[in-house]
């Protein structure tokens, strides 16, 4: 395969958008919740499902979102015989720092859409600017599916390091969360000649034994216990039978919406979910997964990598310790928000901030 970097434009054919709308409008919802007063005990509430389905069929404009995506250039390049799609927002400043931003599941390159502009072209020209590189992980959107069994996030790290060097960035920084954290951790542990600084918003880490919990740590422990008990069905299915659920959802837009949208509901500040942008974010992700046929290969993150209950143990292994300076922002509504004294056990922590929401106001406790 050629090593050239080829321009790419997000351009979903009109007939595909029309087909999605036909399929949605031909879908029958059950018409009622599973039992009276089910609320969100059995999954996302029925009222939520009805509301977001209505938004997809009546309000959502794919072409306006596609135009937003194309405001910055996209490319595809082949590395190790895998085509990798990425957005590249170059800054004008000669002092700009290369920044690799890595998504997770259920996400895509688009989850950084609110920051690649301000980071590459800050409102104040005197502010620090970044050359922002946002790849689609193998198996997501327009990147090729993983080429073999046993392809892990460590392989993604190696490919992304090669991508940055192909772009001329011999040294760079990384932002990562969710499954992207494990790509970033690999870069910060083993690619220290090129990865010079790392920031995570997800880094499962164990507290030292015998410590007394802070109020926030107690609240987080309760949420994590509830998560592992009541919210892990999706992960068990994807880490054991991705073909089953993947084929079932492949051409099923409402199925994709519920499967992915559930996680948007369960791992975000409830107040932020009331904002119109949150609905747009979910529908854009579901649309991307449907149009690019990536719902099934996106599940390989779960099948080929460490299980949730072993995340903290994995991060504590000496070979996985982050060697470069790294920062961590702990968002209370994320799935496993770690405290400073926990996450600093897994690497060279130089910055920590505990926050209640993705709009970054401080939480009590550590």
From TrEMBL:
The keyword Hydrolase applies. GO terms for molecular function: epoxide hydrolase activity. It comes from the Eukaryota. The keyword Hydrolase applies. Keywords: Hydrolase. Residues 5-112 form the Epoxide hydrolase N-terminal domain. GO terms for biological process: epoxide metabolic process. InterPro entries: AB_hydrolase_fold (IPR029058), Epoxide_hydro_N (IPR010497), Epoxide_hydrolase (IPR016292). Signal peptide: none annotated. Belongs to the peptidase S33 family. This is Epoxide hydrolase.
């Amino acid at each position: 395969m050629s090593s050239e970097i080829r321009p790419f434009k997000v351009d979903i054919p009109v007939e595909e958008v029309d087909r999605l709308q036909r399929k949605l409008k031909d879908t029958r919802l059950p018409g009622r919740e599973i039992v009276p007063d089910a609320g969100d005990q059995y999954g996302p509430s029925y009222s939520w499902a009805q509301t977001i389905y209505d938004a997809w069929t009546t309000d959502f404009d794919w072409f306006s979102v596609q135009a937003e995506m194309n405001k910055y250039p996209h490319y595809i390049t082949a590395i190790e015989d895998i085509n990798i799609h990425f957005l590249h927002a170059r800054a004008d400043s000669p002092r700009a720092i290369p920044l690799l931003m890595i998504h997770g599941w259920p996400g895509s390159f688009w989850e950084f859409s609110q920051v690649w502009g301000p980071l590459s072209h800050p409102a104040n020209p005197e502010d620090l600017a970044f050359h922002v590189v946002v790849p689609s992980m193998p198996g997501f959107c327009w990147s090729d599916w993983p080429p073999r069994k046993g392809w892990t996030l460590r392989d993604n790290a190696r490919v992304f390091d090669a991508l940055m060097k192909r772009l001329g960035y011999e040294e760079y920084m990384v932002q990562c969360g969710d499954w992207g954290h494990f790509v970033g951790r690999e870069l910060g542990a083993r690619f220290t000649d090129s990865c010079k600084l790392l920031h995570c918003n997800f880094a499962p880490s164990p507290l030292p034994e015998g410590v007394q919990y802070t109020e926030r740590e107690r609240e987080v422990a309760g949420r994590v216990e509830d998560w592992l008990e009541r919210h892990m069905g999706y992960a068990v299915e994807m880490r054991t039978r991705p073909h089953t659920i993947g084929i079932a959802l492949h051409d099923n837009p409402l199925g994709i919406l519920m499967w992915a949208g559930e996680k948007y509901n369960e791992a975000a500040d409830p107040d932020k979910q009331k904002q119109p942008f949150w609905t747009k974010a979910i529908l854009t992700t579901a649309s991307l997964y449907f149009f690019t046929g990536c719902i099934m290969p996106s599940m390989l993150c779960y099948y080929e990598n460490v299980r949730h209950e072993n995340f903290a143990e994995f991060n504590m292994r000496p070979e996985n310790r982050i060697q470069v300076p790294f920062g961590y922002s702990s968002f209370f509504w994320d799935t496993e928000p770690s405290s400073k004294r926990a996450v600093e056990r897994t690497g060279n922590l130089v910055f920590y901030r505990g926050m209640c929401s993705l709009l970054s106001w401080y939480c009590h406790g550590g």
